[in-house]
Amino acid sequence: MIRHVQSPDRRLRISKAKPRPFTHRRGAAMIVAVVCLTLLSAITISLVRLSLASQQQVERDQWRLQSAWLAESGLLRAVAHVEVGQPVESEHWTPTGIGPMAHAGRVTTTVTPDPDNEARLIVTVTADFPDHPTDRVRTTRVRTIIRTNDGNAPAEENE
């Protein structure tokens, strides 16, 4: 309360204005709340981004494994063709419906005679998963097959 004394003959006037001691505190609390919400939002956004990156990494790991399995399958198919006596110079194989998303893959197999040794065949397999021009995992396997005298290929060598 504020008292004003204007003159000795007048009554003392008492100001009826209420003091506002909490006004500046409300503003400070609002600023603290806004800063806390901003920090909470930033942390939430970073956690969501981290979660999405982790999910993409798991998907890429699955693609890498599937591509490796397709390459091994392509090698086994090529060896089976040679063992039966039907070596294929080049083969394109497109398995479909692979994995939970039913992706397609692409396997390209080439069988060439070894220029240094005619008893050997070089099998090169390239597997792409999924079958997409740019967004894929590519695995290449090369294996040397040793033919016996009868033309079959019972033995394999890894390169």
Q: Describe it for me?
A:
With 159 residues, the chain is α+β, with helices and mostly antiparallel strands. The protein has one domain (24-158). It has one helix at residues 23-84; strands at residues 3-4, 13-14, 90-93, 106-113, 120-129, 137-146, 155-158. Strand 1 (3-4) and strand 2 form a beta hairpin. The strands form two sheets. The protein has a five-stranded antiparallel beta sheet. It has a two-stranded antiparallel sheet with strand order 1-2. The model has no long low-confidence stretch (mean pLDDT 82).
Task: Give the overall pLDDT as a whole number.
Answer: 82
**Share of helical residues:** 25-40%
Q: Give the C-alpha Rg.
A: 39 Å
Count the beta strands.
Answer: 7
Sketch the major β-sheet.
Answer: 5 strands, antiparallel
The total domain count is 1
Number of H/I helices? 1
Q: Which band does the percent of strand residues land in? A: 25-35%
Kindly name the structural category.
Answer: alpha+beta
Regions with little confidence, pLDDT below 50 for 5+ residues: none
Major sheet: arrangement of strands: 3-4-5-6-7
What best-fitting shape do the alpha-carbon axes yield? rod-shaped
Gap from first CA to last CA: 96 Å
H-E string: EEHEEEEE
